Amino acid sequence: MRRSCTDLDCCNSRLRRLFERYGRQVARRPRLFVAVPIVVTLLLAIGLVRLHFQTNMEILFTPTNGRGKTERAELGRLFPLDSANDFSPTRQAHAVASAEAIFTAAPDTTMMSDRRRLNEIRRFDRFVREYTANETGASYDVVCAKMMNGSQCVIDPWLAHHRPGLHPLAFPVTKEGIFIGASIGGVEFEPNGLVRAFAAVRIRYFLSNASAQAWEKAFLDATNRFDSPHVRVVGFTSHSLEEEFMSNGISIVPMFVIAIAAMIAFAVLTVASTDWVRSKPILGLLGVTSTFLGIISAVGLLTAIGVDMSIVIGTMPMLLLGIGVDDMFIMVGAWRRTRVEDSVETRVGETMKDAAVSVTITSLTDLLAFLIGMITVFPSVQGFCLYTGVAVLFDYVYQITFFAGCLALDGRREEANRHAVTFRTVLPRKVALKEEKGTAYRLFCSGGVKHNGEIVVKERYTHPMEKFFAVFGSKLALPPVKVVVLLAFAAYIGVSAWGVAQVNEGLDLHDLVKDDSYAAEYYDKEVKYFVDYGPRVNVLIDERLDYWDAKVQSRVMSMVKQMEDTSYVGRNLTEFWLIDYLNFLRQKGHNPTNLSQRRFVGILRKHFLTNRRFRTYNLDLKFGLDNSIEASRFIVQTLDMSTAKRKQGMMETLRHVVANWPVKAFVYTPEFVYYDQYPAVRPNTLQNIGIALAVMMIVALLMIPHPLGAVVIILSIVSIDVGVVGLMTYWNVNLDSISMINIILCIGFSVDFSAHITYAFMVSDEETRNGKMIWALKELGWPNVQGAASTILGVFPLAFSASYVFRTFFKTLFLVIGLGFLHGVVILPVLLSLVGPKNKRRRSDAEKTSQMSDSLYKEDPLTAQSDVKLSKEKANKSIRVNLIHTETSV
Description:
Layout: H1 13-28, H2 30-44, H3 57-61, H4 67-78, E1 98-105, H5 115-136, H6 140-143, E2 146-147, E3 152-153, H7 157-161, E4 184-185, E5 188-189, E6 195-197, E7 200-206, H8 212-225, E8 231-237, H9 240-251, H10 253-271, H11 281-304, H12 316-336, H13 344-373, H14 379-415, H15 429-434, H16 439-444, E9 450-451, E10 454-455, H17 464-476, H18 479-502, H19 518-529, E11 533-541, H20 550-564, E12 575-576, H21 577-587, H22 597-608, E13 621-623, E14 629-639, H23 644-659, E15 665-668, H24 672-675, H25 677-703, H26 707-730, H27 737-763, H28 769-795, H29 804-835, H30 845-859, H31 861-867, H32 872-886
Helix pairs in contact: 1-13, 1-14, 2-11, 2-14, 5-8, 10-11, 10-12, 10-28, 11-12, 11-14, 12-13, 12-14, 12-28, 13-14, 13-25, 13-27, 13-32, 14-27, 17-28, 18-26, 18-29, 25-26, 25-27, 26-27, 26-29, 27-28, 27-29, 27-32, 28-29, 30-31, 30-32
């Protein structure tokens, strides 16, 4: 009689029959199934000629729907800036090309503010200009951004206004009204508030010419060549970040080679044994090859259709190696559970019936996790999930074609009792001992089960780790051990929850370069000396206002005060044409509150904006045809941008302030494009987790048709996610687009570890909860170890990377795998042994065997004819093992 859906098998029984028939076809034509994936891979590899790396940091690591990008476009529309004629560093919408240098004293224990060291800065300026002109053929005067209608280069305020020996200085604004807060750092003050000494100086060169990038390279070369016993200089350019980020990819190539070697060794050794016929070292190597074919096919296909690659995606092959080798372990394990007396065709069919469904479910959960991960606003995450998801799909297809064909060919070798390495026919160990073969022969040559075509060895292959996990499970069943596990679990949840509350959000730009890079040194000094004053923020009033009206003037000044009253904006550091113009009018003897529009605008345009001192304000006003002021802006100075929370708080506070103004206004600085990641990363992560939990709940219900089982799996996923996010706080990892990738991985891998242990517990025929738990660990403990070890081994070289990006990938993936493994083999077994469902009744072995045989006969006579050859006791054991391993994978 056909079983009902409550028998836990209705969802996959058809797949099992389908894969068994498919496996028989593979066994009949193994070379075809091996050759086709190779040909497909070679064809798709042609797409690699279109391989293009995306290196633009803004595109990769900022939200696609970031508000800063919209505000930038609006600023560009209202006040377009021409870097070749009228450029102002504080008023730019798109950051122009630039080069910067930070000077510190040599030795570092001294200060920069003596005449000798300050003279070295001017000597450096002359050296750079001469050197770059010789190297590029274009002087700085040719490539520089210009102001005053293109009549002169934009000059760094420190170089333009400071003269060595003019002390003491007013800070952050000099007596001449020049803001130098971004030019000197590590300031020490006199009792009267003037500057006594400072530790660092920063100067900037702004560029506009098409040959600017060549000038930047020459600039960096000049900073390396500049020799001074008194100062140390480190340079940085607008292309440094992209170039150094690209060098990150080159830095992991040796690690990738190490990972490949380690994975090959692990795969070969894990499937090898002292039985030199049933040992499968070459098959292990082919399992790694199958994964490589999938990676090449995925990358070739996506690059052929124009999908950009990025350095972040460079970690994908290491991850796929672990996933692919894991699938290989499942299929080899299923082969070893088949009966040695059956034909190769039957054994491959049984293997595919047992393992292919497991591989299908595992690949499905991983693929779903990556598809869900693409629902994000961070292109770096989208690209990684797309490439990895497609690679998982190809890996799955090649496992059930290429590797299945290799398995069939290896099965023919095993059936002929040939050596796993030399392929020569050898004797089974029992026969070799009987014929008194030498010790070397018995140790390195003998094996197999056949001699002269007859089966002489019939025992099933049993891995020693099955016995270990049976003992381990019996120890977990002890009440004192359960108490210890539950207490440890409660402590883990508490510590993780506190870590979640303390997690830092966002990816700082200095995290994208290697630790030993010149760019890293530059960022370190910038953070050390130049975070007291942040970016200057444009405040734009996109509305026609009657600025000559006293009430409007009062209202606008009130808006400025609201800005300066926040903890993020400096008082009396605002750069506003209206403030200076009103003072100008008073100095000229005019009453600013008693002028007509014509008089107010006339003096503004003819006298104030033509004054050399105030000429820059032409960039802050947009006049209408009737001489009305259609739009204007002022600039505020932000304070203390030392942490990501301060940066996010500043941006959100200023946006909130202008949103409540009675006029249409917005705030913008180029840094906002990057700051937009801070408020976006948490909701995006929660969104992905929420969608994934809903999807995985459906998958869990299909895999384990028991409500309690599905609930346990979802709670396990939540627990692992909380642990990963919380514990990474203690490991100095931020919640950013890099760690978000691994949290997405966490969803799929959590199902791999948790669902199958739960499924095994549910289908176990043991009467007690402890018995069901021990049986589940005995069957699945070793596959969990293999899966965890293979994945960690694949990414372990990244732990020694000099890059935060790749170290973060290793750290978060290590937490994902480590916590998933502990949940699967320790926490879940204990919880299930306490609250899991018991078997309502236990049918007799004969009854179960009879019902199962009838069902299988109706569903597939070939399978039934094979199974009825077993004794009732042996048949029941085989059916139970097949049922559990249908869903077993890591």
